[in-house]
Amino acid sequence: MKPVIAITMEAVCGTSYSQAIETAGGVPFVLPLTSDTVTLDELFASCHGLLLSGGGDPAERFYCPALTDAERATLSGVDEVRDEMEIYLVREALDARLPVLGICRGIQMLNLAMGGTLVPDISTRFPKALPHACPNPEAFAHELQWERTSKLWDMLGHGCESVNSHHHQAVDRIAPGFEIAARAPDGIVEAIESTGSGFAVGVQFHPERLLRAGPQFLHLFEVFVEACRQRQQQTDAIATK
Ligand SMILES: [Mn+2]
């Protein structure tokens, strides 16, 4: 059986995440938008991995107690039900040693759920930063500078040197148990990974929108789905003992 990967969604979730999981050999399963933990536990019990998709900004209370008025004015698409749902699922997934891949908003939710913080608006706090809120998700927007010792750099076969960019927030203080794998040339965090043995990765770019740009972007999903498959085999082996 193929591994099943739960995908969190916005009110409307496009097909690109599901297609990327299917192409990489997994079965996508989009969860309903709810913070009811009974529902989430029931549905998530049959999944072997968690993909946190992109979307709006997390609510202020989850990452920064003191936004300026200028920063607060940049927030959009806030949905506290989704925030609570994703924070819960990240902790459940990592407790159960299930692989987690966070994309765009997903890297931010992964970092928040594990105790990190966010830059609430890049251009307000860093006026000289590169443009990161680029309108075309299928166009390369900036380069990446990888930590050559990172697991992600190794996993990706040293690809992903230029990426798209569709965000105005970013990881600020990194969560305990994670480290930075890549930054944009202006220093903005673009990829994080767990320092532990499991697969827990966040990327600020959108690999699912670059599948036609090069094989390295599909490869990220293949590595993720393979990690889910391995975890599935481990849990199946325990269940049949
Ligand atoms: Mn960027």
Keywords, separated by commas or semicolons:
two-stranded antiparallel sheet; 12 strands; Rossmann fold; 8-stranded mixed β-sheet; 17% strand; binds manganese (II) ion; alpha/beta
Quickly describe the structure.
With 241 residues, this protein is of the alpha/beta class. Helix content is 33%, strand content 17%.
Walk me through what this model shows.
- The chain is α/β, with parallel strands linked by helices.
- It has one domain (4-239): Rossmann fold (3-Layer(aba) Sandwich).
- Helices cover 33% and strands 17% of the residues.
- The protein has helices at 16-23, 37-44, 69-72, 80-95, 105-113, 122-125, 151-155, 215-239; strands spanning 4-7, 27-30, 49-52, 100-103, 118-119, 142-143, 145-146, 162-163, 170-171, 178-183, 189-194, 200-203.
- The protein has an eight-stranded mixed beta sheet, sandwiched between helices.
- A hairpin with a 5-residue loop joins β11 and β12 (200-203).
- α4 (80-95) packs across α5 (105-113).
- The longest helix is centred in the C-terminal third of the chain and has 25 residues, at 215-239.
- It is globular, with a radius of gyration of 17 Å.
- It starts with a strand and ends with a helix.
- The mean pLDDT is 93.
Mean pLDDT: 93
Bound molecules: manganese (II) ion
- H-E string: EHEHEHHEHEHEEHEEEEEH
Q: What is the structural class?
A: alpha/beta
CATH class: Alpha Beta
Query: What is the topology, as strand order, of the major beta sheet?
Result: 2-1-3-4-12-11-10-7
Task: Report the end-to-end length measured between terminal Cα atoms.
Answer: 18 Å
Briefly note the CATH topology name.
Rossmann fold
Estimate the strand proportion: 15-25%
So, the CATH homologous superfamily? Class I glutamine amidotransferase (GATase) domain
Helical fraction: 25-40%
Radius of gyration: 17 Å
Number of helices, counting only DSSP H or I runs of 4 residues or more: 8
Query: How many domains comprise the coordinates?
Result: 1
The largest pleated sheet is described as: 8 strands, mixed
Q: Identify the quaternary structure here.
A: single chain
Unreliable spans are: none
- CATH architecture classification: 3-Layer(aba) Sandwich
Strand runs, count: 12
Question: What is the approximate shape?
Answer: globular
